[in-house]
Amino acid sequence: MGAGAVGMGVLFALKARGVHDVLVVEPSPVRRAAAELHGAHVGDPRTADVVEEVMVRTRGRGVDAAFECSGSPEALNAALRSVAARAPVVMVALYSGPVAIDAATLRLAELALLGCEAYPDGVFERVIASMDAGHYPTGGWLDRIPLGDTLAGLRDVRDRRRVKVLVDVASDGGTGAGSGGVH
Question: Do residues 110 and 156 both lie within one domain?
Fold first, then answer.
């Protein structure tokens, strides 16, 4: 759930480990396009019932695992209803407050709801090795922007017009390094 920078990272990590049948659910057309470009099947929660779509795709079984990367309580609950019995749902996203979940769904399907925080030993080395092996392509989701466009770029990310920006501090885009409210 979610195709922001974290969701894209999860997609690349899954693909690096041989998982190629990945469904990414994302309301932003820009982010859906990025996930699709990198081999994911995509769904729009604004136009389709995500749980119903998953159940049709899996013949009623549910997916093997779900990663909630959006920070949306609705997405977390859809993830809980979309997984197969005894499957894990991993909460990777940060939430702005308490989130209500259907405990009966969790208990009756014997699901494992896992939180993810910080970084275990060796994770950076594994990610860097995967990047070096070409498993984390940047095309279609990571935009390099000049320093002078930082605020506009961050607004684009916040408003889901971009997935992620990389600020090039060596370039001011001809606008002057201090423009755009950066001081």
Answer: no
